[in-house]
Amino acid sequence: MTSLDRAVDSAVLPAPRGPLSAAVLDALRGAPPAVGLPAGVTADPYGEDLQLALHVCYELHYQGFAGVSDEWEWDPELLRFRAALERVFLDALRADVPGGSDLTGVLDELLVEPVDGTGVSHFLRDRGEWWHVREYFALRSIYHLKEADPHAWVIPRLRGKAKAALVAVEFDEFGGGRGDRMHSQLFANLLDGADLDHGYLHYLEHAPAVMLATVNLMSLCGLHRSLRGALVGHFAAAEISTAPSAARMAKALERLDAHPDCVEFFTEHIEADAVHEQVMRLDVIGDLLDREPELTASVVFGVQATELLEARLGEHLLGAWEKGQTALRLPL
What we know:
- This protein has helices at residues 3-7, 19-28, 48-59, 76-96, 103-110, 120-126, 130-144, 149-152, 160-173, 183-193, 209-223, 228-255, 260-291, 296-321.
- It is mainly α.
């Protein structure tokens, strides 16, 4: 049994961050059916309350929470409420990205590495201190301890070469059939190496809405067949942009003399994701759009929404760190 296996059952319900998340959490502490959930939703689409409420609803489709009945996963009233949350979030994303159908242009932009890059991985490589790195790890654990899981939902919604190619990428993400090489397990090892807790969702209370939103986008697209193109776009964006940022992270960790398990997580992604980039672009997206060209705009949306939310997260992190402040809701 791996350290990640032992940690999965430890996820506990978080504290609410407003009336929407409070309504969900109050419901989950009882037994279905849901009662007292609002009929409509008016809230900041990127705010703490809505994003936590969505994240908790989505988690019922992953590992769930300690003490929460598995029957909640398909409770009709909870799903109705989740749909209202999703509409607010999705409407905001669609309003805040350019849209369009220029997929080639959007993907080509991801391949451009600015000489004077100023992103999070550039900061950590050049000026980051160990406390910055540990905060980054804690936040990213919200996704990386379930890495590749959201994208698996698109497999039965693809056909032919697109399906086979995406499964090939997922096979690598899941360790090529070896539990100790799954990327989620490698991240658990990284957390151990950084003297952080590898418990599943252990740092959920620490994670602000800008982090939750990046994971919620994947869950949203994964759970809706109508957004299968967007999920493929998201996966492609992640694979295309990971290799160069992982290389910078490896350099940052080597400079800080980090534990080898911390470095390994990123060196594993440098080569793997460089290959995955080509598979996603040529075999998955290429074949998908040959079969369903009407999904082009959806794929573009997935790429753009991913970039939007990652940019918001980066701005939050750098804005706090440049002031010498924590980027977390709760300090480590």
